[in-house]
Structures are given as structure tokens and as C-alpha cells.
């Protein structure tokens, strides 16, 4: 009986881990940044708030972390360093896949 419970518990844990790994899987996307233009990328959600990471070979990895509804802070990964992007990003009213930084006039999108 104890062995049955342990096997059942292990199966439930494995199923939960599999569900989380599938939801965190990177998805193919089309991206745009003011610095790099349009490019094919991988989009990965980081948390339930909407934070995300976009990456592509030959391009920096960009991360936007949601600070509150419609507002985010970002950084770019250059080599092994994470460099904070200045200012705050605001979700675009015209296209919800885009984030604008009014202080630096930069834009980051992932469709």
C-alpha cells in the first residue's frame, strides 16, 4: 500500500513538472527592436505577470520584466553581462505586442 502511494505521488510530481516545462517552452516569434529591426526570434514567458525573454542567434537577448500593469523594466544580455536598459517601458496602445520607452525613444515587439 505504501509503495502504491509513493508511485502515485511520484507520478503526480512528474506530471506537474512536465506541465510547467511545457508552459515555459520557447515559442517561435517575429521580433522587432529599434536597434536591430525585424528578425525571427524565440519568445519565452518568464512569469505569470507577462515578463518575457526574446533571443535569436546573432542578436542580443532582451528581457522585459513587468513592474505593474502596462509598465516594465528591461535589460539586454551582452555576452555574460546583463545590462539594464535605461528608463521604463510602456505597453503600446496601438499594438499590445510592443513596448515603448518614451525616455529613449526605443521600441521592442514580439509577435
Average of the residue pLDDT scores: 85
- Which sheet architecture does the biggest sheet show? 8 strands, antiparallel, barrel
* Rg over CA atoms: 18 Å
C-alpha termini separation: 51 Å
Read across the widest sheet, the strand sequence of neighbours is: 1-2-3-4-5-7-8-9
Oligomer: single chain
| Total strands | 9
Helix coverage percent of residues?
10-25%
Count of DSSP H/I helices: 1
Shape: globular
Count of discrete domains: 1
Low-confidence stretches: 3-23
Structure description:
Residues 1-26 form the signal peptide. Keywords: Signal. The chain is an alpha+beta fold and 111 residues long. The chain is built from 1 helix and 9 strands; from the N terminus they run αβββββββββ. The protein has one domain (29-110). Helices cover 20% and strands 47% of the residues. The chain has an 8-stranded antiparallel beta barrel. A hairpin with a 3-residue loop joins strand 1 and strand 2 (37-45). The radius of gyration is 18 Å and the shape is globular. The termini are far apart. Mean pLDDT is 85; it is low at 3-23.
Summarize the structure.
Residues 1-26 form the signal peptide. It is built from 1 helix and 9 strands; from the N terminus they run αβββββββββ.
What keyword list fits this structure?
20% helix; 1 helix; eight-stranded antiparallel beta barrel; signal; 111 residues; globular
Tell me the layout of helices and strands.
Blueprint: H1 2-23, E1 27-33, E2 37-45, E3 52-55, E4 61-68, E5 71-78, E6 81-84, E7 89-91, E8 98-101, E9 106-110
Antiparallel strand pairs: 1-2, 1-9, 2-3, 3-4, 4-5, 5-6, 5-7, 7-8, 8-9
